[in-house]
């Protein structure tokens, strides 16, 4: 499990394979896919918008063949 904390909000537990989209106020969205569970923590600046499991296309490296 990975704990993700955005300043000013609660900690969220994430599982393997979950997708996180981090949207900075002045840049391109960053999509993170958890490849394995660990006890790491991700701290995200409060100015960023965060979506867990967003409805986005699967990156080409993860596409099914």
- Which spans have pLDDT < 50 for at least 5 consecutive residues? none
What order do the strands of the largest sheet run in, or round the barrel if closed?
2-1-5
> Per DSSP, what share of the residues sits in E-state strands of 2 or more residues?
35-45%
Order of helices and strands: EEEEEE
SS field, number of helical segments = 0
What about the largest sheet?
A: 3 strands, mixed
- Helical proportion? under 10%
Oligomeric state of the chains?
single chain
Structural class: mainly beta
User: How many DSSP-defined strands?
Assistant: 6
Report how far apart the termini are.
Answer: 28 Å
* Overall geometric form: globular
Can you walk through the features of this model?
By secondary structure, the chain is mainly beta. The protein has a domain at 1-35. Helix content is 0%, strand content 40%. The protein contains no helices and six strands. The protein has strands spanning 2-6, 11-14, 19-23, 30-33, 41-44, 49-52. The strands form two sheets. It has a three-stranded mixed β-sheet with strand order 2-1-5, with no helix packed on it. A three-stranded antiparallel β-sheet has the order 4-3-6, with no helix packed on it. The N and C termini lie far apart (28 Å).
């Amino acid at each position: 499990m990975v704990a993700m904390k955005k300043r000013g909000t609660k900690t969220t537990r994430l599982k393997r394979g979950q997708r996180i989209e981090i949207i900075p106020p002045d840049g391109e969205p960053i999509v993170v896919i958890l490849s394995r569970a660990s006890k790491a923590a991700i701290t995200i600046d409060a100015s960023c918008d965060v979506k867990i499991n967003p409805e986005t296309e699967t990156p080409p490296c993860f596409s099914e063949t």
